[in-house]
Design goal:
GO terms for molecular function: DNA binding. This protein is an alpha/beta fold. The chain has ten helices and five strands, in the order βαβαβαβαβαααααα. The chain folds into two domains: 118 residues, Rossmann fold; 69 residues, Winged helix-like DNA-binding domain superfamily/Winged helix DNA-binding domain (Arc Repressor Mutant, subunit A), CATH 1.10.10.10. A five-stranded parallel sheet has the order 2-1-3-4-5, with helices on both faces. α1 packs across α5, α7 crosses α9 and α8 crosses α9. It is globular, with a radius of gyration of 17 Å.
């Protein structure tokens, strides 16, 4: 079994690795610290049997990485591991395709339970989570998620860089492509998101943000 941990905090990655090994000593565990590394690992293969994904990552905005990866790699189950424990965020993560949600305050035994449950094809949620929740943003987020799912991996990378405020020439330099290529990607992104300019694109992607709380 191959488990991939995606988290930009080295100390927490180490703790999570130990927790996984305690429950699944035979598992092969790999780790990445950013969305770019995450995609590189997925594209170079083989696909992991399970991904443990943090919501706060360099190169992502809120639920955007979860939404896009689920669309590009639908066969890979994803468990979100986050310091956010609000019921609204947990339910939103499941709505966007996560198969489980582990708060970072959870005891190690819950990590093992969650992994085994998800690998069996079921959804795992914290035992204390209320089972019903109404989110008035659900329809807006669902529509935006569908638009983001239509982006190619490279278009997604470009969109995240646009959201960070980078100019086309800066994005071209970072991705080692021509500025004309980036302009073409940006045009395609605007069309798929149904927006007219960079400001509208950033506002759109911000709809998938998590509340203004920091891990």
């Amino acid at each position: 079994m191959n488990i991939l941990i995606v988290d930009d905090h080295p100390l927490f990655r180490h703790a999570l690795i130990q927790a996984v090994r305690y429950s699944l000593p035979q598992a092969q565990i790999s780790e990445t610290a950013s969305v770019a590394e995450f995609y590189q690992r997925l594209e170079s293969g083989p696909e992991p049997d399970l991904v443990l994904l943090d919501l706060h990552l360099p190169g992502a905005s809120g639920f955007s990485a979860l939404v896009h990866v689920r669309a590009q790699y639908p066969a890979i189950p994803i468990i979100v591991v986050s310091a956010h424990e609000e019921a609204s965020i947990i339910h939103r993560a499941i709505a966007h395709g996560a198969m489980g949600y582990i708060p970072k305050s959870a005891p190690p035994i819950h990590i093992g339970e969650a992994i085994k449950t998800v690998l069996e094809g079921d959804i795992w949620l914290p035992p204390s989570l209320p089972q019903t929740f109404h989110d008035p943003r659900a329809s807006i987020e669902t529509e935006l998620a569908e638009r983001i799912q239509s982006l190619t991996p490279q278009q997604f990378r470009v969109l995240m860089m646009v959201a960070e405020g980078l100019l086309n020439k800066q994005i071209a330099y970072e991705l080692d492509v021509s500025e004309a290529t980036i302009k073409a990607h940006v045009t395609a992104i605007f069309r798929k998101l149904g927006v007219q300019n960079r400001t509208q694109a950033v506002l759109a992607i911000n709809a998938l943000n998590i509340e203004d709380q920091k891990i």
